Every structure is written in C-alpha cells, then in structure tokens.
Amino acid sequence: MRCSSSLSSSSPEPSSMSSWQTHTSIPESPVTWRRRVMSSSSSSSSAAISAACAFPSTRHCAGTDIATASWQELWHRGVWLAQLWRKCWSSLRRVFRGLLSILRRLKQSPEQEVRLLFLGLDNAGKTTLLKQLAAEDISHITPTQGFNIKSVQSSGFKLNVWDIGGQRKIRPYWRNYFEDTDVLIYVIDSSDRKRFEETSLELAELLEEEKLAAVPLLIFANKQDLVTASPASELAESLSLHTIRDRMWQVQACSAVTAEGVQDGMTWVCRNITLRKK
Ligand SMILES: Nc1nc2c(ncn2[C@@H]2O[C@H](COP(=O)(O)OP(=O)(O)OP(=O)(O)O)[C@@H](O)[C@H]2O)c(=O)[nH]1
Ligand SMILES: [Mg+2]
Question: In angstroms, how far is CA 35 from the centroid of its own chain?
C-alpha cells in the first residue's frame, strides 16, 4: 500500500535509531558510570580497564559529555555562591563595625552645655519658673537682688539657666550676662497690663544688643492661671512681636505655679538649640 510504503520509507534506519537513543538518554553520574564500566570489563585486559576508568571526555561518548558539563556547572555555581557569600559577609561586617563605632561615640560624647538667659521685669515670675524647671519648692520666693543659676538636664542638653533680677536698679547689669547666650527667655506677667509698655520697651532694647543678635527668643506669657491674665495672642499683639524678623521667636502661654505650658516652652528651646548648633 502507498500509505505503508511512505511510512516505511520515512522511518529511521535501525542504526540511526540506536545512535539517537544514546544521545538523548539521561546522563549517569561519573561514579555510577565508573562502577558500571568496571564491572562489565572485569574480564577484559588491564589496558581496557584503565581506558574505561579514565574520566569521560567528549571523544568517548556524547552522554558522558553532558554529565561532565553539568558537574562543571555545579562546581562553578558553588564557587560563585561561596564568593558571593564572602563578599556579603565582609560588607555586613563593615556595616556592623560602623554602627558600633557610632554608638560608642554617642555614648562617650558629653552632654552639650547650653546657656539660657532669663530676663524680664521684676515680679514677672522668672525665679518661680527656674525653680519649677528644677523641680524645687516654689512656696518661698523672694525678689532676686543679683542672679540665680541652675543646671537642668533636658533632651540630652545640660541647660545652664541664668535668672537675673528684674528690678529697675538691676537692669543696667543685664548686659554683663549677654555673652555666649544660646537662647533668650523673656518672662512677662500676663496679668499686669499696666506694665505691658514698660516690658515692651525693655524687650526692644534687648533685641538691639549686638551680643544677643540672632539669638532665638522665647517669650513666656506667664501667670495664665490668673483670670486677669491676657491670652498669649493678645500679649503678642500689644508687644508688636510680629515685627521681630531677625531671629526665631515664640510666645508660650504658661503658669510657673501650675507648670502648665512650661515644658512646651522648653521643648521649643531645645529644638532651636539643635538648629542653631548644626
Ligand atoms: N499666680 C501666679 N503667680 C506667680 C506665677 N509665677 C510667679 N508668681 C508669683 O509672682 C511673684 C514674683 O515671682 P518671682 O519668681 O519672684 O518673679 P521674678 O521675675 O523672679 O522677680 P525678680 O526676682 O524681682 O526679678 C511671686 O509671688 C510668685 O509666687 C504664676 O504663674 N502664677
Ligand atoms: Mg527673681
């Protein structure tokens, strides 16, 4: 039949079929291959054994050629992985060492010392605020004739706070304390409207001082616990604080007696010290 003859003419020769099977069979490992050859050639001559035991090469058989290639590939991959791991490990060690040295330096670095200057009219509440910051008793406070100084820790800083008496006869001595001031804290009695003008003039003079140029300014609108106290916004307007443009400034409503608002003011101070010291 035409059909069968065409089929038989297209089918491969028995010899070529066997050659095709040899090339596509799953490659055995060199160890199995060596065992098989050794057992099959036990009766052959020693020369034949030594030839068979030689590691398969491309000249011997195409199947063993694939086996060699896959073992070589595995070997190369292993070497590559080992090198990669060594590189990653050394990078990680470098990063860890860097982090450790940063931590050590942070631990060793002493606290930054800063100088805060409390000024304001007499009876404004400067000494009461200072004692409140230092968590001291505020029930027996007398007008300051000279100055008070206290060191307070806050946000990683050592705050050296200078509180200078605000009586009229003492004010000419304020200038002796301007040097190296990091933040100026001006305290106002928010309930004493009659003295807003006086305190405004004193503040304006301070802002003209060369040694206080660009020093950040915090204004504590103190005594907010009193019903007669002006709100901080009203005080800011009375003192025309919006005209201050040569420095960072902030008005903070507070009460030195109840401590309300005091910490918020100090947080602003510490934040602005950081910006200044950068
Ligand atoms: N109700 C109220 N009274 C306060 C407040 N702060 C201070 N005082 C009172 O105000 C008075 C004056 O307080 P001081 O702390 O001595 O004021 P000062 O600014 O240090 O005054 P000088 O030392 O004279 O410059 C004291 O009787 C305090 O108890 C406050 O927030 N609320
Ligand atoms: Mg005082």
Answer: 63
